[in-house]
Design brief:
Elements (H helix, E strand, L loop, with lengths): L1 H21 L5 H11 L4 H13 L2 H18 L4 H19 L2 H10 L7 H10 L4 H24 L1 H4 L1
Helix pairs in contact: 1-2, 1-3, 2-3, 2-8, 3-8, 4-7, 4-8, 5-6, 5-7, 6-7, 6-8, 7-8
Length: about 160
């Protein structure tokens, strides 16, 4: 019984850290899954932790990012260039998504390359005024596809089973 408790406590810490790493912009689950495996989690546990962590910020980004940018412009004018850069990035990425709407958003998030992912996809969804209830499923499916792709590319299909 003590061994099971130790394993649970140990894995809970790695699971939580993997979730936190996957919440970081740019790193997201593309870095979270390898981090979790390196920390000692089985691939399937690292996948689950990374997906959960990657999805936690999504609704907040879609709903609040425009207000946050407005607030930053008013109260932190020194960060205007950063806000401008992020808005340009969202609009550029949004042009790719616009043609296919929610399918495009899902595909954009699913591509496991730098500059794509849940953060950028959510930012694009916010600037394209996509309703949360329609954008969230697209982002979720995209994150799941990206997570499977990263897991398979990094560790092989056998490790997932």
């Amino acid at each position: 019984m003590e061994l099971m408790q130790w394993l649970t406590d140990t894995m809970a810490g790695e699971f939580t850290l993997t979730m936190l790493v996957s919440m970081i912009p740019v790193v997201e689950l593309r870095g979270g899954i390898p981090f979790g495996v390196a920390a000692g989690l089985p691939v399937w546990a690292a996948f689950i932790a990374a997906v959960i962590g990657n999805l936690i910020p999504v609704p907040f980004i879609i709903v609040y990012i425009r207000r946050i940018f407005q607030w930053m412009r008013r109260h932190m004018p020194r960060l205007n260039s950063l806000v401008d850069k992020l808005e340009r990035k969202a609009h550029l990425k949004g042009q790719r998504v616009t043609k296919y709407k929610y399918l495009g958003l899902m595909l954009f998030v699913a591509i496991p390359l730098p500059g794509t992912g849940a953060w950028t996809g959510s930012l694009a969804a916010a600037f394209l005024d996509m309703p949360l209830r329609k954008a969230i499923p697209s982002v979720i499916v995209g994150v799941l596809i990206a997570g499977m792709a990263i897991s398979i590319l990094s560790y092989g299909i056998v490790s997932l089973i």
